[in-house]
Predict the structure.
Amino acid sequence: MATEQPPRRADRPARRQVDSPVYSGTAGAAGEVYNIWYHKHAGGREFGNINKRKHKAVTKCNLDLDSGYTRGDDQRVPYICLHFARGCCFKGEECTYLHRKPTRWDQARLDLTHDIFGRERHREDRDDMGGVGCMHKPNKTVYVHFGGAATYGYEKLQQMIRKTFAQYGTIESLSVKMQKTIAFVTYDIRASAEFAKECLANQSLLGSTADEVLDVRWSYDDANPRAVMKRKRELEEQMASAVQKKIDSMPESERVNHNLEASGHYPSTQDAVEDDIDRYLDDDPYYDFTEEEEEEEGDKKEEVEAAGNAGASKSQTAQEQSEKGGASNALGLLGDYESDSD
């Protein structure tokens, strides 16, 4: 597969979408605990519940007008600005995150533990399937509840949904369930799904006058066997890609050793030259002895040789006695002695 190329730098600076920060929800009272998992203050209403989703967002991202270069492009930041996706970034070109649509190159730079906005993904999905998502799932399919837009009919509605969601990435598949007024949109990469989910939360379909409010969440896994096998293959490819990326970042020596271990083939040692320890004594000045040390070493060698000669002499004497007097028992006594009673 060809290496993805980085997108071309924008010709214009990013536009300031708002003049001042925009806060969603109600601020908690002093001392209240803020739950980052459910995005709410202790005792307050959850920002992501169904009651909240009925209210249309006050800001919206317009890619044609808002996209541009920022300080994030100069610093090679790999993440998209979350406030830009929601249409409420007041920093413009001074923002340290990217202000553009994510591409395959951005997806290739992501790891499994972070989303396209740099937020940590969780081990499990939230109960309401909102939030950042689960790191153990591809998270390329979003669930969309379009409500009153069902009055347009199946063909018209399908075109409107595709046109609306195609702004933020390439769509692989689209399934519309008219009776339940829901749809499932699957993108080719996870980054596009994450970006579209934030951009279209609490928005309306393009060209719609039904005043509907889109409820966009993560989809549950499709139980279709073909879909299950496809997800399994994609996860395996993601894991293989992550491992290969880690191997490529290793130093050359470590990478060679890893490849040998993975293949089960090791270099042959049959032709290896046996190391000669004596060469260190001849070549290394560390092993040079002084005259006194050489004399002591010589005396030790003579003592060892003398002790060895003495042991050999004793062994020879014992053997001669054994041959003369017969076999000896374990106590060294003669085995053919005569009894006094005889």
Residues 26-30, 44-53, 330-337 have pLDDT under 50 and may be disordered. DSSP finds eleven helices and six strands in the chain.
